[in-house]
Amino acid sequence: MAGGAAVGRGPLRLPVALVLAVLAGVALLVAFPLYGLWWTAPVGVALLAVAVRGRRLRAGFGLGLVAGAVFFGPLLAWTNMHVGYTPWILLTLFQATYLGLLGMALAWISGLAGKRPWVWPVGIALLWVAQEALRDRAPFGGFPWGRLAFSQADAPTLALAGYGGAPLVTFAVAAAGGLLAYAVGELVAARAWTRAAAATGGALAVMLVGLVLPGTTPAGPVVSVAVVQGNVPRLGLDFNAQRQAVLNNHVAATVALAERVRAGQAKQPDLVVWPENASDIDPLRNPSAAGAINTAAQAIGAPILVGAVLSGPGEGESRNAGIVWPTDLAPGTQPQQMYLKQHPVPFAEYLPLRPIVEPIAQAITNQAKLLRTDFVAGTAPGVLTLGPAKVGDVICFEVAYDDVVRDTVLAGAQLLAVQTNNATFDESEAMQQMAMVRLRAVEHGRDSLMASTVGVSGFVTADGNVHDATGFNTEAVIVRDLRLGSGTTPATRLGAWPEYLLTAAALALLVAAGVARRRRTAPVEETGQTAAA
Q: Please, what is the Cα angle at 195 between 192 and 199, to 5 degrees?
């Protein structure tokens, strides 16, 4: 399988393929925030496909691994800010392994493309969806960061999210990349300019199809929502040690908003949202913390969704919660509505297989000692009533998981609130997360918001547009009217079925490629046996 320079007739020379794999990783990277060049995503898909076409499986895996390392390394660089380089490197290599498997699978099916040209672009798109479906789930619930769909917040393809969710957006982007790879093959191998031009036009049409698709606009009443970004004294993992100051910041900012409301300088909000970790002092156990939040709620005259860390229920356990704090909480009583984060982050909020993993983690980073407790997962969607609205609470990284957000909408959420704490990361991570909020708003036809301790916070209307975005590492309070929604989009109704069907088709294609390979080698084996006789 070595040698040969033509893309369409055989594999590229290995040095050329290696360069293309590196460029594929770069193209994928710059499609995401902070770069935001969404149109480079299909280019990255095409470059990787061209690099691995016709190669042995081992070479396909290696080239995919290279592309993945170049892509995920810088994309996830925010994970090394306070825990050292080793965890970041391990996470990068682990995520890159999935692109290695993708490269292997693309090499495996490339033999089908000779007699069936349509297989190549379709197969590329199907296998990319299947790779993301696996990476989003395994191991320990998966890590969906870096899905192609999350690079498309500013692209016309974002509209597809309302019809098939993130998997359909990924399919479209990868299909466009597949058509570009086919076009390159036709040009290099056969000088077939007409077919290459048609494939390129097809890729452009796929990327622009969202321009003609109608979106979903919430038709419910308008509510006024305030988001409080209280900021922290200093960024880093020791924000926990600053927990009294962080709580005080959010109380003070809310009281200041109330003063502006009374002075006629700001609109009275119907509800207020504080971010994740706004109160790392358990307000259900600490009267002082409860009193401070009471002061803020009574001052602003609206219920507050408070991001809090709660102790228990067992020894060495904690809970990441969103608590509805009413304005009229009676002395000696506790709030009645609460959402517990359903998808704690492994190795960040809990240690899987702690007796085995903890000694290894401590050897890798001295920051492992900060994870003394394990966060316990909640079991119910976060639909909470705040004033006139049923708010769907999604905490931090949960916004990356399709099922968590969809279940919240199906449970009755009229708008989505993503509470997050970016004090341990940087602006690029916050912007990547905001891109996910934008996709979810379009996917489910819900006005949404993101409330962060340090930024970026902002409102997102159901068309995916961001409003009133705050700066990073600064105090800010924003107020905006949002419209409540009650209908469902096709994506909400279909749920995971588009991903299931596309993944099943990818598996069928892999089987078909195996059968075709076996048929090609069978006559050779029979001839060899006859000659030996």
A: 135
532's tokens? 């030996």
Strands 476-483 and 222-229: antiparallel
The first and second tokens of residue 488, run together, are 């469902």
Q: How confident is the model at residue 356 (pLDDT cuts 50, 70, 90)?
A: confident
* Closest to 278 (Cα-Cα) out of 315, 314, 316, 249: 249
pLDDT tens across 414-466, in order?
999 999 999 989 999 999 999 999 999 999 999 999 999 998 999 999 999 99
Instruction: Say how many C-beta atoms besides its own lie within 10 A of residue 138's C-beta.
Output: 11
H/E run at residue 311: strand 304-311
| Cα dihedral sign, 291-296-302-304 | negative
The DSSP letter of residue 281 is S
Residue 530 scores a pLDDT above 50: no
Stated as kind and residue range, the H or E segment containing 229 is strand 222-229
Whether 267 is catalytic: no
332: left (phi over 0), alpha (psi -120 to 50) or beta: left
Size of the chain in residues: 533
Which of 132, 186, 349, 396 is an active site residue?
396
- Closest C-alpha among 275, 162, 245, 190 to residue 9: 190
pLDDT digits (tens, 9 = 90+) for 234-275: 665 454 558 899 999 999 999 999 999 999 999 999 999 999
- pLDDT category of residue 190 using cuts at 50, 70 and 90: low
Q: How far apart are the first and last CA of the chain?
A: 29
Catalytic position from the list 276, 349, 443, 499: 276
CB neighbour class for 360 (10 Å; exposed up to 12, middle 13-18, buried from 19): exposed
Catalytic-role residue among 132, 186, 341, 429: 341
DSSP annotation of 314: S
Distance of alpha carbon 291 from its chain centroid, rounded? 36
Q: How far is CA 213 from CA 166, 174, 487, in A?
A: 16, 19, 17
Using alpha carbons only, how large is the chain's radius of gyration in Å?
A: 25
Give the DSSP letter of residue 269: P
Q: Which of 451, 75, 420 is nearest to 229 (CA)?
A: 451
Please confirm, yes or no, whether 341 is among the known catalytic residues: yes
Q: Quick one: DSSP state of residue 234?
A: S
pLDDT band at residue 7 using 50, 70 and 90 as cut-offs: very low
* CB neighbour class for 415 (10 Å; exposed up to 12, middle 13-18, buried from 19): buried
The string of pLDDT tens digits covering residues 308-328 is 999 999 999 999 999 999 999
**Residue for token digits 């991570």?**
429
Task: Assess whether 396 carries a catalytic annotation.
Answer: yes
In terms of Cα–Cα distance, which of 309, 302, 244 is closest to 275? 309
Give the number of C-alpha atoms closer than 13 A to the C-alpha of residue 324, restricted to the C-beta side. Answer: 22
